[in-house]
Amino acid sequence: MRRSLLLCALVGACAAPAGPVSVPAPGPDREAEAAPPEPRPLVAEAELAAPAASAPVPVSSAAPPDTRPRIGSVRDITWIHAKPDASSRKIGQVRVGASVVTKGRPAVPTPSCPAGFVEVEPDGYVCANTTTTRDLDGELFRALSLPAPRDDAPLPYRYALSNGAPMYTKIPSREEQLKVEGPEDRRPNPGRLRWATGHEELASDEPGGVAADSQVPDVFAGGKKAPVPWGRELRLVKKWIPHGSMLAFTRAFEADGRVWLLSTDLSIVPADRVRPFRVSTFRGTPLGADVALPIAWARHDPARRWVRRDGVFEAAGAPLPPRSFAALSGGKITLGERVFVATREPGVYLDAADVAIVERRETLPVGVEAGERWIDVHLRAGTLVAYEGERPVFATLVSPGAGGVGPYRASDAELVRLSTTPLGLYRVGWKTRAAPMTPEGADPKKFWIADVPDTQYFRGPFAIHTAYWHEDFGMPKSAGCINVSPADGRYLFGFTGPRVPDGWQGATPSAATGRGTTIAVSP
Description:
Layout (H helix, E strand, L loop, with lengths): L5 E2 L6 E4 L27 H5 L20 E4 L4 E4 L8 E5 L4 E3 L6 E3 L2 E7 L5 E3 L4 E2 L5 H6 L13 E5 L2 E4 L5 H8 L55 E5 L4 E10 L2 E6 L4 E3 L3 E3 L8 E2 L8 E4 L6 E5 L2 E4 L9 E11 L2 E6 L5 E3 L3 E4 L14 E6 L4 E6 L2 E7 L14 H7 L5 E4 L2 E9 L10 E11 L2 E5 L15 E3 L1 H10 L10 E2 L10 E5 L1
Parallel strand pairs: 26-35, 32-33
Antiparallel strand pairs: 1-2, 2-30, 3-6, 3-10, 4-5, 5-34, 7-8, 8-9, 11-14, 11-17, 12-13, 14-15, 15-16, 18-28, 19-22, 19-25, 20-21, 20-24, 22-23, 23-24, 26-27, 27-28, 29-35, 30-31, 30-34, 31-32
């Protein structure tokens, strides 16, 4: 399969998946009609502001332990095939340190997989080769599963921007730190990067700022290095995270007077050499009886409210705050080149030039059937509406390509060069819960954005995905992808097909996962 260029979020940061994550081309003969997946619920404001506090669960309501047999991944890529044949279509993927439920049947040896293919739920086959293990209680898998993602927060991991940080393979001694990083009072604080201004919008102003929240993991106790499946000796420093690249981590702990972060690749990173991101609280709005289209969004700037007195419009009242909306009545008044749209607040208008107006689309896109879910994106307005047939159910702001509206007919390379989002009708061809973005391939050294969540490819390198480094939604911002907020990314990932089953990291349309949802991109 062709490796797909993965566009990250901002201009100058086009990227490709770290590892052979590709977008299989779904054909009509390979897509199966399926009931649309239920969307994950929107995250409450309190949950967005901080991780939910754990609460004791009554014994009577506790779920019974899951004793179903599973097979786990111990390498970066474990593919799920449509058939027990390594040359068959890849329909999904299991992330290293994660596991998928099997059907409990004996493995089927084949010439392409002598160890045997294992049938998994809900469908598909995994080769029981060196990328997998059935020993989920073993030291290796327990270590690899330490950086497990969260499902009870708007983001699966915590994130930070690097000021130039080493990725250690163990907790280094003071002598080792001095040798690698130099004296503490001489460690550089390189300041801001001109080209990465947009990347720094949600990062704290100073390095550090992450408090220890857990104990030293047993796998690193006593100066031990984490075990690796291929049995080779790891160097003390795996590599450096360049200034401006991003880190995903799952826990913070203190050792020898310093706070350390556990990266999602099981590296140990000093917290005082990164700047943590805060989590954006922006989210879109459900549509229904309480909120109906048309609505008007204020985007980057507040939008002034206007009232008409003696035929003259005057600013009145508090402006509509950035990234908030007002319901419209449908009325409007044109004065010269200015158009004032009436809100549902009696006598109050908005200047159409100050807002992004979202109106209901009355016709279904070609190929979308009655009642089928689809997504409507408008680039100039920076808006997205999710539909069930002709009924709009959700509206939000997004950040499309910074290059504005590009040509209808253009190659991927041309669109990338122009930093524009492709126009047209597409279907989601590959979804992944989180994937690193980089222009360098499998093992980047110069630049990467770690574990971008809820990514949905709709045309080759272009995707709808969460942006955890900015919240300027509604404004053109990306290198061509469609950026959404953490809460919106999670909701849309659950809203669309194909479905990504339990334990799967990613999936393409198939009999097991259903059809890809239509994405309509208009100027």
